[in-house]
Fold this protein.
Amino acid sequence: MDADFPELSPNVYRDTWCGQVLGDRVDKAVRVSGWVHRRRDHGGLIFIDLRDRTGVVQLVFNPDEAGGSFELGHRLRSEFVVSVVGRVLTREPETVNPDLPTGQFEIHVTGAEVLAESDTPPFAIEGFNAEVGEEARLRHRYLDLRREPMQRAIELRHRLTTSMRRFLDAEGFLEIETPILTRSTPEGARDFLVPSRQHRGSFYALPQSPQLFKQMLMVSGFERYFQVARCFRDEDLRADRQPDFTQLDIEMSFVDSEDIITLNERLMAHLLGEMGIDVQIPFPRMGYDEAIQRFGSDKPDTRYGFEITDLTEILRGTEFKAFGGVIESGGAVRGINFGRRELSRAQLDGLIDDAKELGAKGLVWAFREGDGWRAPIAKFLSAEELSGLNTAMDAEEGDLMLVAADQPAKVAAILGGLRTRLAERWGLIPEGENQLTWIVDWPMFEFNADEDRWDALHHPFTAPSGEFDPADPGSARAQAYDLVWNGVELGGGSIRINSPELQSQVFTALGISLEEAADRFGFLLEALRYGAPPHGGIAFGVDRFAALLAGVDSIRDVIAFPKTASGGDPLTGAPAPVDDVQMRDVGIALRKPAKPGSA
Ligand code: ASP
């Protein structure tokens, strides 16, 4: 049992935790309560494994000792809730269970009471079958949560958030709650809307993050704020996203990026240290452009190599049209050397499908052979080009090279995607290593060709580095930073704009008119006019962090009541239609569904 577990104050139900039935209780009378984990009927004797939050203990119902309670022992079924009294004895050596902390002991029952019966559970809690579908687990989540791995995951999450709170409290941070019913906060997703009954036709938005409130708290002079905050984003379906999720949200005043980075390195070392993971600080930093060049990602997994090499200059002017044409139109040719690999023709062709899934038009594969290539396209390239490519990619005999050509951002994303996919598929990721890296020096904006406008890469409140030229958004850099752990973005933040003039200029660069800015964020612009200190902050995804620490694949396994990948909750049936009266109260009528084919 966890040494920190508090002692029980005896009451009518129990005086001892199940997990506490150890050597010091031998020959003593105890009272325990819990759920029937397992039941075995051995002719004259009934054995029950009884479970509470601290563990499992074996009960023995023997007709000589249990008296009238023996019959009750017969009636017990899985997941019944019982309270028993009995004497603790050491088990016979041949019945010791080395897998159980209490496995050397058992309680010989002298009295028992059923506190609640249970229907037969839809899936077994003890001896859970991994085939049970997620829908069934979520439909009966209260039962799923009884399982040992779920109990441990929820405990771990609690320890993580407690550890965050302790560290930040000791550093002078205040945890301050911000509203759930509020106005839109732009973090790049759609808002969830809540119709107002009192103000018909008006809506609250659920916060995508506490961004604007935490900035106003800096204007208020709190200087160091944090919150374990629920955030809501109505995004399109993506594996392992939740419409409501939790962030550790932090904001500080009179700081620059350096202060925020160093405080958060200490926070991370503390949190990971408490979870038994030692990390060295400071963490390495990498510029955004370098991350994209070398790893094809703004969240590079730096535990392994297989970096991207730019081959454009070697191939400029090549006769091979698939490369030459792309280069002429301003594109790039880049490749990765994956080392010596044996792959069948079908597997090699499969790689082309992988690349296409990642948005490529095609993919070239080649093995180094002598000074040239063994590859279907080798004949289209000159001997000089081939040997130049081998040298650039540092290829040795038999090494597999994958090469793609496209516009620079696209080719980076394709090769970056292939790199992580194949590293996983081919087992190239070193086990047990932890790499935490800051990605710094971000562009302020990225061009959204579909909408023909500039979008903020972080959010519109991020401060630019140095002078800002509103006429040239493409070259503006941001005082922003992301923390990446083994290729996963743990969190990100920035120094904020604290001047209303600069904030207005950034809105203009984003194509947000001054009227629109005044309507949507006027309250923030106004707050910035009353002595806003220099400030900045960061937010970390708590669900993702807990999932990584728990070693589970899905964030749903560290959330007590998550939604399915399609945003539904099989337990409560949310989201659900509401009745006419409720709709009328908030002044809402549903539109007719759009006719098929109409936009
Ligand atoms: N509000 C930002 C986010 O939710 C984080 C930050 O800038 O502090 O991503």
In short: The mean pLDDT is 95. The radius of gyration is 30 Å. The chain is about 30% helix and 25% strand.
